Every structure is written in structure tokens, then in C-alpha cells.
Amino acid sequence: MILLFTATFTILALSSLDQVESSAYDKIVTHSRIRAKNQGPNVCALQQVMGTKKKYFSTCRNWYNKSICGKKAMVLYECCPGYMKLEGKQGCPAVAPIDTVFGTLDLVKAKITQQYSDQSKLREELEGAGSYTMFAPSDDAWEELDPVTSLVSSGNTELYNALHYHMVNKRLLTKDLKNDMTIESMYNKQGLYINHYSNGVVTVNCARIIHGNQVATNGVVHVIDRVISVVSQTIKDVIESNDDLTSLNTAALSSGLLGQLAEPGHYTLFAPTNEAFENLDSDVLERLMSDTTVLQALLKYHLLNSVQCSEAIMAGSVYGTLEGSNIEIGCDGESLTVNGIKMVLKKDIVTSNGVIHLINQVLMPDSAKQVMELIGKSQSIFSDMVSELGLSAAMQSETEYTILAPLNGAFSDETMSMDQRLLKIILENHIVKRKVSLSDLYSGQLLETLGGKLLRVFIYRTAVCIENACMVRGSREGSNGVLHLMRSLIQPPETTIYELLLKDGRFKIFLALMESAGLTDLLKQEGSYTLFAPIDAAFGTLTEEDITLLKSDINALRAILLYHFSNGVFINGGLEGGVTNLLKTIQGNNLQVLSVNLPVGREDILILLRRLIKYMQLKVHPVHHRTNTHTITRVIKGEPSITKVTRVIEEDPSITKVTRVIEEDPSITKVTRVIEDPNVKITRVTNGDPSITIIKGVVEGEPGINKVRQVNEGKPSITQVTRLIESMSKLH
Question: Considering the entire predicted model, what is its pTM?
Fold first, then answer.
């Protein structure tokens, strides 16, 4: 009874201390207890990898995926550390009896460790006075140890020393085992290297604690999954002494990095073997070895500034390298993977300043590649054409470039069928003569291409565009250049806006009005403008009298025309989707442009939708006094089958008016609503059968009178609002 009370008190006391300062391991065990709450008291849920003996207190990620390292895992229910079953009782209601460290080895089923402790004369120490931590290899760990026979047969002294190296001369619970901690063992004060990971895994010399915190009267026992040995070498020492790493040793020496690998630290090195270096193309290997900067970047890409033991890897995770880029370390069953590829030949070579994993491939970061080597599958057409047309050979490795690579979808059948001389010119204008990273770009910047063209850069809130083409995510920087991915082919400007409109032939009315307003030179002069150019069809509802009326007031005409111009170049891809983009016009007011991303499969429909202008506002401020204020509001009709909402908000110093026009499909009833200042009145006009009604115009008369007149005509097939002209007093 006294022994049972002592055990209970000790366990509860240590548990209460754990709650004050719990570790990742303790939290994982707590979660395992919660998952098994329906199994009775003090039961923990574990996952065992199918086909192996490996069991884990799992993270939420592994638990809900029902797998560990990509392999299916079955759920086991066992007593949580420190508890036992009682016959006829559910769960694990009994506290495990407390014993000395030697007796506890039997309790945690580390029978071979207990046997060797007795054989090596360590038993007296493990049963005596003191406070110890014993990292006890499991029975499976001893059975898997190749030289175990020689260790045992070499005499009790060697076995005693080996077991002493598994001991610390004080009690250390898992909460005391901090990440990157080095503690002195009881064998000549040789170091034990502790890592405590966020997923709850705790390792000592990369051996995982599989059963922790079994408290004894004179210490604590942690069961580990392998037999550990004394660590005496640094990473540098291993590289220099391992016959499989002579090529790596040469590269590390040439780069000046070898010395760093002898210094104290906590590193993980993925060390390519000699065979891995031999698998590189001879010209690539020669280029790497001849450039110290590139070689150093290559080797640093194989180094992590943290210790990642294989037993701590339970799923894919991203880690930063000393080179600056990230790599993904994962697992596939018993194998480690790097960037999703099985390449680890040997795991967990523990050193005093980290751990080494041998790999059969050389990892190649972008910084060690030439810019043409950065091009991926999504730009394969561009890459193939550059090679076929001889541009790749013309790009020297010692010269820096920026490649603006269009995605495969940018190359239409028409483009691919062009004369090769024209294709070469197009491709030359996608290669810039110098290295320009994404962070170096700014609006107004000019980039000179191999073809001799100067490309303009446009920076927007959420996009970077070069001429008509905008970038997509995925820019990469190599040793001699930068790769930017472009959504479409770049088309450098060849002519002025005026010449484009004139050649197109659909803008005759607009050009005539520009000439009448004396604004034609605006279309010809140098500058950066965006023009929302109305085609002739947009004027289709205006009569000759209307055109004459517009031309009669030059100031009003100029205001209308300048409202179609915005200072600066705004590429469609540079407009932010889903929100209203405000573009300041030369006339002074803002255009409200809404860019909407629609799932359209056909390119011709997409082009049509991009041309739709959803929101327009036009105001001319008073020149002298209120009676001279005039407002012209225009709604441009679309196809009857497309639903459009156009909202125009107008103001003058005393009256606020909202005019809202809603057009629907002809089969749906249409409502036209005019809302004026609530202090005056609200007028609502609702048309009847949309199949026979068309509103041709609403004209409001004198400034002091607010009224609506409507004209109904019978065109039975289509309902539309063709125009709405409001005027107050006469045009100034």
C-alpha cells in the first residue's frame, strides 16, 4: 500500500509540473488521450504504419489523413505512459508501480537493455542511490543492431561503456529535453544531441523516444528506437573521411565552404555521393566547378540550418536552405524524399554539429542554373522555338539576360505558321539584354531587347505588365539571368493611336469629332494615354442633328471626348478584378472601370466581354453659374441577350440625382427608375410588355421642373434603352 501510494504521488506530482511547462511531446500525448477517451481512462490512441512495427503519437495532420509517410496507418489503443490495465476493468485505471531504473526497464519491455545492464555490472548502479535518465534501446533496436554480437562478446567493459553513454546523471523528463540541446552522458562526458520537434517527436542522436517519461524512484526511463553510439566527428570530418564523398569534398574545398562545416552549429547536409556528381553533364559540372559563387550557392542549397533527423519526418514539410531557397523534405514509407523524389541512400549520420543524409542526386537550385535552364514545361514552346531559331546558342553563359517567356497558350496556330524570320524577330523581343529581377522593375522603365526594341514597363497594384503582356506568378532567378512568365506574346508598339484608329476603319465618327474639337494632335503626339475609343456603332442612335448639336459647343464636345482619355497606360491585365478601378481622365473626372474574371472557354467571347464598359460617369462643372450647368448622360446599348446594369451618379451644388437603367433579356419585364432629390419628388416609370415597348428618349425641361416624358413605339421583337439625354438650361 505504501509503495502504491508513493507511485501515485510521484506520478501526480510530476504530471502537475508538466502542466506548468508542457512540451510538444506532452501535448501530442494529451491529444492521443483525448482521441481515445471512449476507450476508458488513461488510454492513448496511436498510429502504426501498416507492415512495420513503427508506432506514433500522431499529429492531427497524420491522424485525419490516416497515414504516416504516405503509408496507411492503423489505430492502436494502448495505456498511456505510466498507467496499466486491470483485469475486468475498462481502459487503464491503474498507475504503474514505481521501481528503480533497473526494475523499470522490465516494466517498459526493454528486457534486453535490462539483461545487458545486469551482464555488464551496471545493475548495482541502476538500483542504487542517485538520479538518472536512461535512454533505453527497445528490444527491437538491439535485434536490428548489426555489430551487437561483437559489442556483447568484446567484454563487459565495452558493453558497460556503451550503456553508460545512454545515461545522464540527472532526471530529465521530455519537457526538459529542449531542441538543439547537448547534454553530457555518463560515458566520459561525451555529448548526447537532443532534438525536440514541433510534431512531438523527441530524438537523442536521431534515435526517437517511443515511450517517454516512465518515472523511477531514482530517475526516469525513455525507451528509444535504436542503439546510439558516441559522436566524435564534425560534418567536415565525415566528408573528408568518407570514400563516397570525395567529389563533394573537392567541391566544398573549392567553394571555401568546407571550413564552415567544421564549426559548431546545427546543420542538416544532404550529401551527394560521387556517383551523383558523375551523373551530371560534363559541361555543367565544368561550369559549376569554374565559378566559385555558383558552386557555393549549389552546396548551400544542400544545407539546412536545423537538424532534421529522419524519424522526425512524418509528412512533407518545407525548409529553408542556407542558399536562401526552400526544399521540401518528406518521406515515402521508410525512405526520405527531397522535393518529392526518393534519393536518400543512407540516413542519420550523426555529427557533433548536425546530421548527414547521403543522396544519389545533386540538388540544383535556380541560382546555380543558367537562365535558359529555368524554363519549365508551361513555356516549352518558347524554349523549343528559341533553340530551333538559333537564339539559345547566341546567349553566352558569361552574359546576363532577362527572358520574358510566354506560356504555351500564347502561341496560336497563326503565330506558329509565320515565316521563321518574323518568328525570330518576335522571340528576340522577348529577351532583354540585361538581368532585371522582379524587384528591379518600375513604371516607365525601358528594357532593350535582343531585337533592338525598347519595351515599356507598367506597374499596377496587383500586376506587372510589359507593353501589352502581363506577368504571371513564377519568376525565377538564375546565375546569369532572370525568367519572367508572360500571359501573352509581347507586341511592341509600331504606330500612334491615330494611325491605329485610322487603319482600323471603325472609328470614323470618333475621329471626325476629335478633329472638330481640335484634339487630333492628342492622338498623334508622344505620351502615355489610355483611350476608351467608341466605334461607329456606338453612335448609331444619334441623328445628324445630334452630331451637329455636339459640334456646336466645342467646350462640351471636348469635355465628352477627353472623358474617354486617361493619363497613363492601363493594360487590361493590370486592372484589379472584382473591384471598381478608378482611372482619372484628362477631362478631370474619374472613369469607373470594373474588371470581372469570367469562366469563358472561347477566346472570341472573352474578347467581347472585355470590351463591355459597365460603369460610366460624366460631369461638366459650371463655368459661370448654376443655370449654365449641363449634364449629358449616355447609356450605350449592348446585345439584347446580355443583361446589363449601368448606374450613373451625378451631382451639382444643390441637387443630387441617381439615374439607374436596367436592361434585361426581352423575355423579362424591364423597370426604368429615375430617383431625384427626395426633397423634390420621386418619379418612377415602369414600362409594360417589354416585347412591344422601346424608350427612345427622356428629356427633362427647365431647371425648376422635374418630370418624365416617355415615347412608346411598337417594335415587337426587342426592348432596349437607346439613349437618355438630360439637359438643364441651354448648353454653354
Answer: 0.71
